[in-house]
């Protein structure tokens, strides 16, 4: 819901925006995907996107989202809103509320609002996002992780946010996105606090720690998956208190690759290759050079 700023709010915003140099009202960043080795599946808080368990992932630098984020004033045009374009296609923000949550949280941080539900996020500032990926989106390759991490990282630079605030922005957009804020081996701590301030991502090892490690992405299907990760997690939590019932994303091709890797390792008499899947049929194979 749009509302007009009070004089006090307007003066505060002008003061903050005065610190943003004109050439810095647009930022372009490149952020990689991350592939989980220890996954999180299910949330203890849907609104704050707080996971039920810790998770661990590798960032894959060669697959990324290159994203441009602009911040604009719409004082004289209250009908304008946030805009998001992904690979040339405009996103309907009425159908995808995750972007709005991130933008509203960023506006709250800008205005130092004490309101925790975003209702006081002022509409006189809008965000424009143009993101392009070099991999299929919504196909189980952590596209949302790279996308929302890129948005959060760009907003961090635009508004001079702290690392923790940027991590929160990424997390409320897509949980695993906070892991893409770290390089190398990233650890997302589930945390225990109700407000989620201890649910952050940290780097366990930099990407240079294991220089011989290679990752091979095997794409069986580029189409959008039938069941999204968010819906899959919700169904799991609702239908099984032990989380033993999982949504089946793997295809016969996925299982064939799994069998091939096990056969390869058996012939080598040691583990030379490992595999992992995100919420989709496409595989990530890890090997040493």
UniProtKB/TrEMBL annotation:
<keyword id="KW-0752">Steroid biosynthesis</keyword>
<comment type="similarity">
    <text>Belongs to the diphosphomevalonate decarboxylase family.</text>
</comment>
<dbReference type="InterPro" id="IPR029765">
    <property type="entry name" value="Mev_diP_decarb"/>
</dbReference>
<dbReference type="GO" id="GO:0005524">
    <property type="term" value="F:ATP binding"/>
</dbReference>
<comment type="function">
    <text>Catalyzes the ATP dependent decarboxylation of (R)-5-diphosphomevalonate to form isopentenyl diphosphate (IPP). Functions in the mevalonate (MVA) pathway leading to isopentenyl diphosphate (IPP), a key precursor for the biosynthesis of isoprenoids and sterol synthesis.</text>
</comment>
<dbReference type="GO" id="GO:0005829">
    <property type="term" value="C:cytosol"/>
</dbReference>
<dbReference type="GO" id="GO:0019287">
    <property type="term" value="P:isopentenyl diphosphate biosynthetic process, mevalonate pathway"/>
</dbReference>
<keyword id="KW-0067">ATP-binding</keyword>
<feature type="domain" description="Diphosphomevalonate decarboxylase-like N-terminal">
    <location>
        <begin position="32"/>
        <end position="199"/>
    </location>
</feature>
<keyword id="KW-0753">Steroid metabolism</keyword>
<dbReference type="Pfam" id="PF22700">
    <property type="entry name" value="MVD-like_N"/>
</dbReference>
<protein>
    <recommendedName>
        <fullName>Diphosphomevalonate decarboxylase</fullName>
        <ecNumber>4.1.1.33</ecNumber>
    </recommendedName>
</protein>
<keyword id="KW-0444">Lipid biosynthesis</keyword>
<keyword id="KW-0443">Lipid metabolism</keyword>
<dbReference type="GO" id="GO:0016126">
    <property type="term" value="P:sterol biosynthetic process"/>
</dbReference>
<dbReference type="GO" id="GO:0004163">
    <property type="term" value="F:diphosphomevalonate decarboxylase activity"/>
</dbReference>
<dbReference type="Pfam" id="PF18376">
    <property type="entry name" value="MDD_C"/>
</dbReference>
<keyword id="KW-0756">Sterol biosynthesis</keyword>
<dbReference type="InterPro" id="IPR014721">
    <property type="entry name" value="Ribsml_uS5_D2-typ_fold_subgr"/>
</dbReference>
<dbReference type="InterPro" id="IPR053859">
    <property type="entry name" value="MVD-like_N"/>
</dbReference>
<feature type="domain" description="Mvd1 C-terminal">
    <location>
        <begin position="247"/>
        <end position="288"/>
    </location>
</feature>
<dbReference type="InterPro" id="IPR036554">
    <property type="entry name" value="GHMP_kinase_C_sf"/>
</dbReference>
<dbReference type="InterPro" id="IPR041431">
    <property type="entry name" value="Mvd1_C"/>
</dbReference>
<dbReference type="InterPro" id="IPR020568">
    <property type="entry name" value="Ribosomal_Su5_D2-typ_SF"/>
</dbReference>
<keyword id="KW-0547">Nucleotide-binding</keyword>
<keyword id="KW-0456">Lyase</keyword>
<keyword id="KW-1207">Sterol metabolism</keyword>
<dbReference type="InterPro" id="IPR005935">
    <property type="entry name" value="Mev_decarb"/>
</dbReference>
